[in-house]
Amino acid sequence: MDIVLSGIRPTGQLHLGNYFGALRNFVRMQHDAKCYFFIADYHALTTHDDPTRLHENVRTVLAEYLAAGIDPDVATVYVQSDVPQVTELSLLLGMHAYVGELERTASFKDKVRKNPSNVNAGLLTYPVLMAADILLHRATHVPVGKDQEQHLELTRVFARRFNNMYGVEYFPESQPYNFGADLVKIPGLDGTGKMGKSENNGIFLADSDEAIRKKVMRAVTDSGPTEPDSPLSEGVANIFTIMQAVSAPDTVAFFREQYARCEIRYGDLKKQLAEDIIKAIAPIRERIEAIKGDEAYLRRVVSEGAEKARASASQTVADVREIMGIRPF
How do residues 198-233 score in pLDDT, each as one tens digit? Predict the structure, then answer.
């Protein structure tokens, strides 16, 4: 059986792109593979996050994962810092990670360029900790975005290096998992690129109805088609892409026909889209609030998840210590 691992940094709320992209696939996948889903709070520390906000973000993302359909009785759901074995494995892997290869990662160079006053050791060794997250459970598949592909390649390098150095076939070379045609890519509302947390172009699962309406009505469009069957501008194409994810097929067909005839009214299009988004995510928002208010349930989920994750992690660390020659007298 495939072992799938996915982590998310607790940097804020999940948005529509997260839900219609990876999250819905995770909900299906958890029944067909051995899945580990974790909240990467150690990784968030590289940006010196506010302690109070960090804890609340962990709580929020956990509630959103559960509300979206991740089942802690089927998959293993845990908080990274609840599994101390990840830091020991990161230390052990770091003994065979070279400074030069870490300094050459695109993400590190980008962070150095943008924040030269905060070039901490955590940023440099970020790929080693990420490799430890993955190899801790000997994951065979890891869903990653373009910005993380280089880190996953380094994980394979570390796995091969460990196996070759100690003459074992212990760590698998984890492969990227992109869901193929099943992955729905939700664009942002600003007319360019994907929906994201930092781009300020997203609709979040916890947004109120009014917030959703305001955001959608501000979405970028154009002056309208000037002749039948005009090509869609990027902003209008983005709106139709989102509509295809949340609206009924006949609704999408109606507005596409209106556009093709040069009869489209973007105000009507946006109003319909806003109401369809509200209809799609209102039940999730209600579940998020209910789960966030159930402290006993959240404690049970993270406690049981940590116990399951530590069982897998303890075996891996024990094996690695033995292979590397760290043995009791």
Answer: 677 889 998 999 999 999 999 999 998 888 888 999
- Is residue 197 annotated as a catalytic residue, yes or no? yes
Nearest to 235 by CA among 278, 274, 201, 272: 201
* Residue list for the binding site for ATP: 9-11, 17-18, 145-147, 186, 194-198
15: β partners: 204
Q: Are residues 239 and 310 in the same domain?
A: no
Q: Tell me: the pLDDT tens digits for 258-300?
A: 999 999 999 999 999 999 999 999 999 999 999 999 999 999 9
Question: Is the same domain home to 20 and 167?
Answer: yes
HEC-encoded secondary structure of 106-124: HHHHHHHHHCCCCCCHHHH
Same domain membership, residue 133 and residue 59: yes
Residues 242, 187 contacting (CB under 8 angstroms): yes
Of the candidates 34, 185, 194, 214, the residue annotated as catalytic is 194
Domain that holds residue 223: 209-289
Record the pTM: 0.88
Among the listed residues 111, 215, 270, 292, the single catalytic one is 111
Q: State the binding site for L-tryptophan.
A: 133
Decide: helix, strand or coil at residue 23.
helix
Structure tokens at 196: 């994201």
Q: Out of 78-82, 121-125, 198-202, 275-279, pick the least confident.
A: 198-202
Counting the structural domains of the chain, the total is 2
For residues 126-137, give the mean pLDDT. 96
Let me know if 308 is exposed, middle or buried by CB neighbors in 10 A (0-12, 13-18, 19+).
Answer: middle
